[in-house]
Each structure stands twice: as structure tokens, then as C-alpha cells.
Write a structure and sequence with these properties.
Blueprint lengths: L5 E3 L5 E4 L12 E5 L7 E4 L6 H9 L5 E5 L5 H4 L2 H8 L2 E3 L16 E4 L2 E7 L8 E7 L2 E7 L17 H18 L1 E6 L8 H24 L5 H9 L4 H18 L3
Parallel strand pairs: 4-5, 5-6, 10-11
Antiparallel strand pairs: 1-2, 2-3, 3-4, 7-8, 8-9, 9-10
Helix pairs in contact: 4-5, 5-7, 6-7
Length: 260
């Protein structure tokens, strides 16, 4: 019986779910394996946290080895295991951030070929400044790996001050353009299930962000000008990591509105 933490996406990538569930990670981090053709190594997108059992499952899912490890952004729940996995497999780590990339950092529009399929790197800043996505052109239609820019459930964090709401809104427009240009049929996120209605999903994300901005304007005009009071007014009774995320979102919204 196949391990429940592994799942196949028809026509290509394999998802290996990391055992780090939580309010910010949903069921856990999705590690994506892009298999090579027979006799050629795989590429791993987001190896996840430094959990030895998880990294061992990733390595087992790559019987021909791993040539490169790609990072969608620098957050530890995506990158924590990268160095150890690289040492185990002699793989090269690549990212947009030159501090994480062991070779030339990724550039927008860069193309690779894996398992007989072309893969296009696209910059998607907003969640973080270094956020990336990858479009893989599969026989059944193109897919986009979104990291934490779009999640399989709920909405994404704009991780202020590294994250930027203006960039994030522009990135949603960019993803819309990618969907239309390349006929992207599925979004493969860093957390949560795959998304099979990409255009509608981006529309929901945009609507959510604009609605939040309206709520922040209204609350601020009523005299709630501190971050804490705005969180209470707009996000309600949230605690712990969820409240911390709400505070970062509010700071990003205030900066966008010129109210910071």
C-alpha cells in the first residue's frame, strides 16, 4: 500500500506531505518531486522542514537521485531540510535569494527541462520578496507550483516587512496572465490540496484582498488606528500564530494605504 503522505498528480509531479501541520501550514508543507525520465535524476521543489523521516521519504521517492533542490521562498517550513538533503544526494540548491542558492539565483523567465517536460521559472513577489513559482508543461496541461503565494485552502499571508501588498496584488495579475497564456489547469501549492479552478481561485484571492483593504479603511476612519485594534476589528478573536499573521497582514495593508 502506498504511503498516505505520498500522492500523485496526474501526468507528473509527486506530492510528499511533511509532518508539520499547524494553523499556518495546514496539513503540512507540500514537497513536490518532479521525476526525471528513466535513468535521470529528479528535481525536488521545497524539501520542507529538517525532519529526517520526511527527507528520507523524499529521497526514496527519487530512485534515480536528485539533481537540484528548488526553493519557492526562504521560509523555514519550506527550506529547513534543504541543506541536509543536498548533502545526502549531492544535489544543488537553487533559489531566488543568492544567500540560499548554491549556484546562480533563479531569474524570471528561466527555462529548464525535467522528465521530458519544460519548466518555466516565474518570480511571484508579495508573500515574500523572494517568492517564486514554476510552470511545468505536462501532456495533460500546464501546472503552476505556487509556493505560499496561493494556498490550497484559505488565503495567503503577506509577510511584512519582507512581503509587500502592492507586489502581491501585481503578482495575482501576473498569475492571471500566466493562466491565460499557458492554459494552466491546476495550481500546486506549498500547503493544502491542488486547485483545479485556477482563474476563479485568483479572483477569490483578489476579492478577499480588496475587501480587507476596505475593512481596514473603515476601521481606521472610526478611530481604530493601532495594529492591535485593527486586528480585533477586522480579523476578530484570533490568537497565537494566527494573530501574529493577522498583525503582519495589517501592517502590510497600512503600508499599502499610506497609513503606516
Amino acid at each position: 500500500m502506498r504511503d498516505a503522505s505520498h500522492s500523485l498528480v496526474a501526468g507528473g509531479p509527486v506530492r510528499i506531505l511533511a509532518p508539520n501541520p499547524g494553523p499556518m501550514t495546514l496539513e503540512g508543507t507540500n514537497t513536490w518531486v518532479l521525476p526525471g525520465i528513466v535513468g535521470e535524476p529528479a528535481v525536488v521543489v521545497d524539501p520542507g522542514p529538517a525532519d529526517l523521516d520526511h527527507l528520507a521519504r523524499v529521497r526514496t521517492a527519487c530512485p534515480e537521485g536528485i539533481s537540484e533542490i528548488w526553493l519557492t521562498h526562504h521560509h523555514d517550513d519550506h527550506t529547513g531540510g534543504a541543506e541536509r538533503l543536498a548533502v545526502w544526494t549531492n544535489a544543488v540548491v537553487r533559489a531566488a535569494d543568492p544567500r540560499l542558492s548554491q549556484t546562480d539565483p533563479f531569474q524570471d523567465g528561466e527555462r529548464s527541462r525535467i522528465g521530458g517536460h519544460e519548466v518555466l521559472c516565474v518570480t511571484l513577489p508579495g508573500h515574500t520578496a523572494d517568492s517564486l513559482g514554476f510552470v511545468e508543461f505536462l501532456p495533460g496541461g500546464a501546472v503552476l507550483f505556487t509556493g505560499d503565494t496561493i494556498l490550497g485552502r484559505g488565503t495567503a499571508l503577506v509577510a511584512w516587512p519582507d512581503g509587500n501588498l502592492g507586489q502581491y496584488l501585481a503578482t495575482l495579475d501576473k498569475i492571471d496572465g500566466l493562466i491565460e497564456r499557458w492554459g494552466i489547469s491546476r495550481l500546486l501549492p506549498g500547503h493544502g490540496p491542488e486547485i483545479t479552478d485556477p482563474g476563479a481561485c485568483v479572483g477569490r484571492y483578489r476579492h478577499h484582498r480588496l475587501r480587507r483593504l476596505d475593512q481596514i479603511r473603515e476601521a481606521y476612519a472610526s478611530g481604530r488606528t493601532s495594529v492591535g485594534s485593527l486586528v480585533d476589528a477586522v480579523y476578530g478573536d484570533v490568537v497565537g500564530a494566527t494573530r501574529q499573521a493577522a498583525e503582519l497582514n495589517v501592517r502590510a495593508q497600512l503600508e499599502y494605504l499610506g497609513l503606516a
